[in-house]
Amino acid sequence: MLSAVETRSVSPVFVGRTTELDTLQDALARATAGEPQALLVGGEAGVGKSRLIEEFAATSCREGAVVAVGGCVEIGADGLPFAPFSSALRALRREMPAELAAAADGQEEELSRLLPELGEAPTGRHDEEGMARLFELTARLLERVAADRTVVIALEDLHWADASTRHLLSYLFRTLHTGRLVVLATYRSDDIHRRHPLRPLLAELDRLRTVRRIELARLNREEVARQIAGILAQEPDPAQVDDIFERSDGNAFFVEELAVAAHEGCCTGLTDSLRDLLLVRVEALPESAQRVARIVAEGGSTVEYRLLAAVARLAEDDLIEALRAAVSANLLTAAPGGDGYRFRHSLVREAVSDDLLPGERSRLNRRYAEALEADPTLVPADERVMRLASYWYHAHDPAKALPAVLDASTTARRRHAYAEQLGLLERAMELWDSAPEDVRVTLRPADYTEGYPPCGCDPQTTPLRYLDLLAEAAVAGRLCGERERALKITKRALRLLEDDPDPLRAAWFWTQRGRLVQALARGDGWRELGIAQDLVRGLPPSEVHAEVLTGAANWSMLHEPGPDALVAAERAVEYARMVGAREIELNARVTLGGLVVDSGDHEAGLAQTREAMDQALAEGVVHVAGRAYVNLPSELEAVGRSKEAVALLREGVDYTRKYGQLDAEAWIWGNLSDSLYALGDWEEAATAAATALRRGQSAQPRGMGALQLARVALSRGDVAEAHRQLDAARAHFGSHDPVPQQRLPLARIAAGIAAAEGRVLDLRAEVTEALEGGVPLGTHRYGWPLLLAAATAEADARLLPAAQPGREEFLERLLGAVKSLTTDAPIWLAYEEWARAELARAQGTATADLWSPVVTAFEHLERPYDLARVRHRLAEALLTPAPGRASAAEDDRDRATELLRLAHAVAGHLGARPLAEATTRLAQRARLSLSHPPARTDTDPVTALGLTTRERDVLHLVSAGRTNRQIAEELFISPKTASVHVSNILAKLGVSGRGEAAAVAHRLGLFRAAPQDRP
């Protein structure tokens, strides 16, 4: 029978940690109330992190929560990709099978990258959003699982975490906003040296207000005494407590070891080295148990029983006796799953492992690898390939290690663990020259590398080349964000290709290099694309050829849209079709459709883009469909069809969120903000822009969100906020790769801020610089607002002495730009008339006859703010006396009054303070009243307008800013019926948009008070 001490080196009494446990309990309570919690628990090795988590887990379970624990797995020096999350999700699946199945419904294939039991991971092209997509789906899965029951996810030993695990944890901590969920992670603080990969993550998480960090201190003397009493089941001698406290320095694990050692009488002559203290426990075991301990130490964090038996090569009875001795001595413990063994504390495992001789370590790793090759079922299927690669590598056998490492890199890629894939490929490069030639010739290229290899050879019969490894590594580096490493890899590959020319492979690497140069903000990538185009010119069609042409067309669409870009896109589609590269073809067709719209053939271009999007949706080409949901609404907005754009953008939000396309979703939110602003829904536009900032993973879509927020702030007169958001947008976009769709709107906001602050000369400088950069074909949608802002500012500053120097030359430049800019849609024809009217006002020659057609043009467009602005200008012109008259005619004053009331009402509805103040000042100068005129009859104005009872109800809600969907919900009708009612109301009121309808209702005093917003 085992003695009491042998079974109780862990104290049954939980000592201290009251404050820390209270913090965890508070987090549990907050999570139960629906507020997700994120915590980090740090402390030195042996200080009691795991024991704290065990106590918290027990308490959580008693309160009805589900606790899922996952540990970072160390195999030699390698961490398994996503290991703690896989373990935790597996535990959740055991505890909540129905809930997890429901939460994962429809996304099983993608989520199987983390939990293979859900299905087979999909194959196909990998893109920059692949990992982000997996992360988003994981976050949504956890939120759904924790919707109705509190869930605690505990991840242990984060200091061993692989890069993919660290990235996923960071994402969850930043994005979990709903659900009864606690996510906590532990790590060894004493292991986090200056260059430890966890250190940047901890610094990042420290900046998040939503993450709480707990640092476990060592125990004080009183707590050490209580711990020793619990271990010994009796009050300890005070002198013994003093000795153990001094030697352990309050480290809970070392207190246990010293207490047991003292009780067993093995303190005499014991070295002061705590490592030696740990080894004394091992050396006291029988030789067979020591041998088993050494085997387990080299096998990883946990070693399965059958694998251990195969490596130990002991008779089963002897193995069990050896294990019983190690378990009884509290050296080893059964793994949580019950099918393997692990060291009770990792410090002991490290001490035993460090004590192995170099040859001994290699021999053990070889035995592990041979056992696993002989029987792959010895370890879980999702760990097998990675562990075999690690064992062979640490066995120092290049012939076996190289194929195993390459298999592991493919597995890592399929799980979107690109950082681990890159590390494994770099390990394969290290092994390449050492591996025998007869092994290398049996290796084959990977099943997928973005169109590589480009030689047209059969991957099944063509041996793998070192260059192929570089290709895989370059893509992995780009996808995991290690762009600097990827850039160096492409440089090495291109040097090799100088000695052994291969135009297609070289073109492929130059294309990759161009993408990396852009991502690293070191250029616009055109030089690299140009070299790639030169290399493929004249060669037979290939997938690389199609990819190069598609890249060139995409680049040109953003930088220099025009006939050359259109030709490049057409050739890209043609080549992709010839070689059967369907995804490249669909992507090129999205680009082509946009360029056709830019060329002026709107309907054909929109139809082409729509067709490509529909086919991408039907064929499940997610990244192309997501891109189409960004581009097609943008093209609709470019021709003034904002309502159509909004409907499509809302579809796109749902689609990209479903598939975890975070950057595409962020672009969609930015475009939605743009269209909602145009339609006069500024509150929702600001919300959409803020969502783009929050959801975007990369800088560009966040820049779009900041830009839209700057525009709303400027239009509302909040110049300081506009300035702040402009700076943020510029920082996100950077200066390395200026494109018109960013450069021109940024200049427009900067010019508007300069005008608001009275800095006319600065405004001219901004506009001049922007115009010198050019307004290429298809970017006139960004050029017209810039020209209008400049012309308006010059007109407002007409009489300022400081604005006179250089004024005429600047106005001439603006007029020349107005004459040259495209007007291929009614919206831009209206803008042209508006800009010409503002230039005339700047010269003092604007008349009501000039402004009336501008107002008429905008009355047929869905642009309430623009219409209000030109109505204000027409009113101003009407109130300007004709030559020879002291005042305006009475009819002109009446008309001006009506125009100002409409403009003022819209300004109030939108919160456009500068416009509201301008209309008020003009009315005051002209002695006009903007208040509602007294009712002339007792007739109900609603009836007089010809509105039905239902239309009256709908107008009431329109005036309160409700959307069609909200109106439908409130009146218990369908959104389509609500839309029909709104259209009828606009026709009866003779207005063109919801904002104007609300303004008419406000002016006529149709409703005493707007309905209260629902909670």
Radius of gyration: 35 Å
Distance between the termini: 67 Å
Q: pLDDT under 50 segments (min length 5)?
A: 1-8, 267-272, 934-938, 1009-1015
Strand order in space, largest sheet: 2-5-6-1-7
Mean pLDDT: 86
**Fraction of residues in β-strands:** under 5%
By DSSP (H or I, 4+ residues per run), the number of helices equals 49
Strand runs, count: 10
The biggest beta sheet is recorded as:
5 strands, parallel
- Which range best describes the helical content: under 10%, 10-25%, 25-40%, 40-55%, 55-70% or over 70%? 55-70%
In short:
The protein has 1015 residues and is mostly helical. The protein has 49 helices and ten strands.
Task: Explain this structure.
This protein starts with 17 loop residues before the first helix and ends in an 11-residue tail after the last helix. Helix 20 (418-432) runs antiparallel to helix 22. By secondary structure, the chain is mostly helical. It contains 49 helices and ten strands. The protein is globular, with a radius of gyration of 35 Å. The chain is 65% helix and 4% strand. Strand 9 (332-334) and strand 10 (340-343) form a beta hairpin. The strands form three sheets. Strands 2-5-6-1-7 form a five-stranded parallel sheet, with helices on both faces. Mean pLDDT is 86; it is low at 1-8, 267-272, 934-938 and 1009-1015.
